[in-house]
User: Which sequence fits this backbone?
């Protein structure tokens, strides 16, 4: 498993260690890039694959994804099973008299990346946010070196979505009103600039679906401030 | 800590019955193979028994407590499940008894804001106290503009009030979990087995 490069310790690596770590990181980055690409290609179900692929090519210089595509397809299949579960659960809630709020209108025939991602089930949105953050890390010329990276804190620990080679712990949030959890606020306070939170919105998926992912769309979300309190950098207006 | 997981608390059926229903077996050897066993949840599925009699199944899967599983686990007893998805700040608790859905409490903070709660069925009396307490915290910390979503914890805290467990990796006094693995299917049950007399 890749060494967990704390921001300070990673900089004390010897050149050989650094090269070895970088090689491993690049291998992982291939998977990460593909995860991002396949997330974008997720929209294929709704007829947006060409745009998504074009956007991914723009972001990463193209290239086939081979086995990674197969792996990601398996992931998608698992996700579909969960979607079915969510639909059933909502049915239970309806029978009880009210509707639960676990966003589920996924199968409603949405058009466009915005509507599509707005309608995704919760788990899918979470995965999408993680994948978009990986894309953002890559576009920042950094690479993810570990997923679900554990970082000890003074009183507890935090488990971030991924750790970058630069020593930044990255958390992804998806949704116009997604805030941090109480524990995450403590991690943010303690880790400061070593803790990056990306807030993603359906419109970011829309940009990618529309072929506008040439870097700007993914780099757009300003980290460390939630979208309902920050004016988006490119489009303006509250999401 | 963007966790995406769930737990099911079962009271009534025995541990063996719970495991049989889920198709799982205790597999302590899994623990030794996991280098991050100190950081829960270390395993895809794990089990803990509380002194109060509740059996807890912890799963690294938001969607694990399916209606089918919940109905089966609650036969002859009660099953309370909670799922949390911290990327979208979505949490949901639901209760089944004797195979029937009784209530559910959903929070969708990412889409509907920090104060969102949807209730289905008839939640227990304890719900109001949990909701009021965490809503008051949200108010005190800045309301909808607060840095954190405190109401997100309503389903989890309700689970804790009712069955004595909530997934909280910061707590040092939590129950000890045992790793679970998939139960192997019985051999010899196929056509050849029957033809050649295997049992």
Assistant:
């Amino acid at each position: 498993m890749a060494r967990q490069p704390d921001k300070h310790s990673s900089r004390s690596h010897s050149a050989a260690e650094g090269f070895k770590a970088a090689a491993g990181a690049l291998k992982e980055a291939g998977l990460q890039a593909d995860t991002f690409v396949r997330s974008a290609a997720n929209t294929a179900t709704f007829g947006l694959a060409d745009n998504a692929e074009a956007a991914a090519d723009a972001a990463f210089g193209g290239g086939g994804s081979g086995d990674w595509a197969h792996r990601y397809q398996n992931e998608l299949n698992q996700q579909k099973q969960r979607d079915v579960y969510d639909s059933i659960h909502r049915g239970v809630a309806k029978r009880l008299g009210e509707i639960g709020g676990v966003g589920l209108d996924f199968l409603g025939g949405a058009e466009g990346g915005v509507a599509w991602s707005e309608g995704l089930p919760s788990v899918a949105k979470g995965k999408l946010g993680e994948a978009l953050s990986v894309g953002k890390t890559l576009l920042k010329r950094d690479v993810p070196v570990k997923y679900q990276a554990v970082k000890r804190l003074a009183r507890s620990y935090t488990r971030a979505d991924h750790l970058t080679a630069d020593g930044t712990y990255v958390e992804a949030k998806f949704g116009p009103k997604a805030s941090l959890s109480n524990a995450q606020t403590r991690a943010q306070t303690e880790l400061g600039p070593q803790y990056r939170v990306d807030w993603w919105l359906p419109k970011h998926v829309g940009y990618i679906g529309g072929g506008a992912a040439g870097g700007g769309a993914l780099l757009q979300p300003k980290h460390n401030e939630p979208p309902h309190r920050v004016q988006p950098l490119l489009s303006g207006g509250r999401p | 800590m963007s966790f995406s997981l769930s737990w099911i608390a079962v009271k009534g059926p025995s541990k063996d019955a719970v495991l049989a229903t889920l198709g799982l077996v205790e597999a302590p050897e899994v623990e030794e193979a996991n280098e991050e066993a100190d950081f829960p949840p270390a395993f895809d599925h794990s089990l803990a028994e509380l002194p109060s009699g509740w059996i807890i199944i912890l799963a690294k899967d938001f969607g694990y407590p399916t209606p089918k599983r919940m109905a089966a686990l609650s036969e002859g007893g009660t099953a309370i499940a909670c799922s949390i998805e911290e990327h979208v700040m979505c949490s949901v608790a639901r209760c089944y008894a004797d195979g029937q859905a009784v209530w559910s409490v959903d929070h969708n903070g990412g889409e509907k804001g920090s104060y969102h709660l949807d209730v289905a069925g008839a939640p227990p009396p304890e719900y109001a106290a949990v909701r009021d307490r965490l809503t008051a915290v949200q108010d005190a910390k800045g309301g909808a503009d607060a840095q954190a979503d405190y109401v997100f914890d309503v389903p989890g805290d309700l689970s804790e009030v009712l069955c004595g467990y909530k997934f909280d990796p910061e707590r040092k006094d939590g129950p000890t979990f045992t790793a679970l693995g998939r139960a192997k299917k019985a051999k010899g049950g196929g056509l050849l087995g029957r033809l050649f007399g295997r049992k």
